[in-house]
Amino acid sequence: MAVEKLTERRPEIGADELITTLVPPPRFDDVRLSTYIPNPDEPSQAAAITDCGAFAERVGAAGAKRSGLRGLFGRRGSGGDAGDGKLGLYLDGGFGVGKTHLLASIWHAVPGPKSYGTFVELTHVVGALGFGEAVRRLSEHRLLAIDEFELDDPGDTMLVGRLLKELTAAGVFVAATSNTLPDKLGEGRFAAEDFLREIQALSAKFGVVRVDGPDYRHRGLPEPPAALSEDTLLASAEQRPGSTLDDFDALCEHLASLHPSAYGRLVDGVPAVHIRGIRAADDQAIALRLVALADRLYDRAIPVLVSGGSLDALFTPEMLAGGYRKKYLRAVSRLTALARDAEASAPVSHG
């Protein structure tokens, strides 16, 4: 029985689709602030619900356009509120504390027009449409929600700084998530001191809401399921119509040929992804592409089954000690959750 391969897919996203597809991924279609269950041992989570709700109300009441704004954003004050009247909200915390749930809930609570995308999707929109056209289209929205806000190189730092300056001047509200406080963005990844001014300018645009707590995906079960045998992996792929089966090395090569913003389209509609011969990534470029793929698989709740090495050995100790550590740990967390989903949906033998 023939099994489909991701390496045989080459998705393309037209320029006109870029803005219309800026919506929360399927996993977060039904999330709301009311469905976020705060950890009783982490008071910041309940406080974050209040702050996010207040922010959504401000966005909804403000209308589509505002101009002549002064003092747009600022750091959270000692009073504990994320900032009455502020136009930016930054959700900071470790992976697995529900920041994306909160961000998508804000998006759902706000009337349109509005947009939601990951940081890499946003930079791709600017690259595909051109800066001026991207600003023109996004300025028509009352909210821009940015998930996984990252500054991995100087070019992106300056690009996003310019973009947010233009959008906020047009009255667009901005909400974002990341695992790094705004004034620490870029730290350990490039020569941050050379771009300190740009980083600080971005930092000044957000009121910060801290979301503390352990990774909910790993409570009580930190280890990923064991890798499957080659025969078991093939049998699983054959028993799940429409699922895919790829060799790890070939998949990594294919990912390098696509822009990361296309990874979501690459896996759309796939009921399960099978990867044969998992091993540690060879270098940082491959590792970061795997992070982006893991995020898109998680967004779509697509179960993942593998043979070869363990998912928690996908990134080398050197990578886990470097500037992208939080990205790699998030990817392992999400892939582990998807591997458990695979076990739960169709248990198979580890023979």
TrEMBL record:
<dbReference type="GO" id="GO:0051301">
    <property type="term" value="P:cell division"/>
</dbReference>
<keyword id="KW-0067">ATP-binding</keyword>
<protein>
    <submittedName>
        <fullName>Cell division protein ZapE</fullName>
    </submittedName>
</protein>
<keyword id="KW-0132">Cell division</keyword>
<keyword id="KW-0131">Cell cycle</keyword>
<dbReference type="InterPro" id="IPR027417">
    <property type="entry name" value="P-loop_NTPase"/>
</dbReference>
<keyword id="KW-0547">Nucleotide-binding</keyword>
<dbReference type="InterPro" id="IPR005654">
    <property type="entry name" value="ATPase_AFG1-like"/>
</dbReference>
<dbReference type="Pfam" id="PF03969">
    <property type="entry name" value="AFG1_ATPase"/>
</dbReference>
